Amino acid sequence: MRWLVTGAGGMLGRDMVDELLGRGEQVTGLDHAALDITSPEAVDRLIAAHLPELVVNCAAYTAVDDAEHDEGRAMRVNGDGPRVLARACAAYGARLIHLSTDYVFAGDARNPYSEHDPPGPRTAYGRTKLAGERGVLDELPAASAVVRTAWLYGVHGRSFVRTMIELEARRDTVDVVNDQRGQPTWSADVAALVADLGSRVGHDATGVLHATNSGEATWYDLAREVFRLLGADPDRVRPVTSEAFPRPAPRPAYSVLSPGRRRRLGFPPPRDWRTALHEALPRIRKETLRETP
């Protein structure tokens, strides 16, 4: 297939392009400098030029705290942009996979969120991402999929895992939040699922599905595992509550997503987050050391 990936300069976008190239697909990756998804004219021009069969939208405004005082800008990118892409895909007969987030939920559940649970975002970022989901599903209901993920880390770009690698080298101890629970997820695993999903979008796989690694952890648990894999003493990580790190945007206390629809569609089950981290960490550490002055 002919693929077009927006947001190709980001963590997930770069993994998406690499995954597709590794499968021998025809793929064009466009970062923000190459395509502003909020511009209908620019989107129409690029879709017309490349005529992709499938577009993967990884472009997003991801500054969660900044969105609290800049919701208008975040809404243009996260809410309006996906709708613009969906309209262009409809006009040129392309299908669309749009990446979304656990922040569309309130984060106060006690059991994993299913694809059918009602959203209830408590942050500006979550509201804008929910608007993007609805824009895609409204404009392109029969030829689109929304893939929600959470707690992403990857070889490229900033992430909690990379921060822990850096802090382990610089500090004797590190304080990490132990009252927020979610699913640490390697972006490369999400890219692989999206690539598998591509041929089925518009056929038997439309609507919303969740893509995370399996299992549950707190940020404290994740930090300890990073230290352990680095050969460092995990007890150098000290648990604290969210009150120790007040943020403009409240973090969800519970961000676990159920893979129910993924399972029903017959996709391979997600692997445990520890297994994924064990494979990813040497690559992330190598890239971190390469970029450290």
Brief description of this entry?
The protein has 293 residues and is an alpha/beta fold. The chain has a domain at 2-155 and 185-215 and 255-271: NAD(P)-binding Rossmann-like Domain (Rossmann fold), CATH 3.40.50.
Can you tell me about this structure?
The protein is of the alpha/beta class. It has a domain at 2-155 and 185-215 and 255-271: 3-Layer(aba) Sandwich (Rossmann fold). Helix content is 40%, strand content 16%. It has nine helices and twelve strands. The strands form four sheets. A six-stranded parallel beta sheet has the order 2-1-3-4-5-10, sandwiched between helices. Helix 1 links the parallel strand 1 and strand 2. The longest helix has 22 residues, at 71-92. The mean pLDDT is 97.
Write the layout of secondary structure elements.
Blueprint: E1 2-6, H1 11-22, E2 26-30, H2 40-50, E3 54-57, H3 71-92, E4 95-101, H4 124-139, E5 144-149, E6 152-153, H5 160-170, E7 174-177, E8 181-182, E9 185-186, H6 187-197, E10 207-210, E11 217-218, H7 219-229, E12 237-240, H8 260-264, H9 273-291
Parallel strand pairs: 1-2, 1-3, 3-4, 4-5, 5-10, 6-9, 7-12
Antiparallel strand pairs: 8-11
Helix pairs in contact: 1-6, 2-3, 3-4, 5-7, 5-9
Coarse shape: globular
Number of contiguous helices: 9
CATH superfamily membership of the domain at 2-155 and 185-215 and 255-271: NAD(P)-binding Rossmann-like Domain
SSE string, helices as H and strands as E: EHEHEHEHEEHEEEHEEHEHH
Describe the sheet with the most strands: 6 strands, parallel
Mean pLDDT across the residues is 97
If you consult CATH, what is the topology of the domain at 2-155 and 185-215 and 255-271? Answer: Rossmann fold
Which CATH architecture of the domain at 2-155 and 185-215 and 255-271?
3-Layer(aba) Sandwich
Percentage of residues assigned to helices:
40-55%
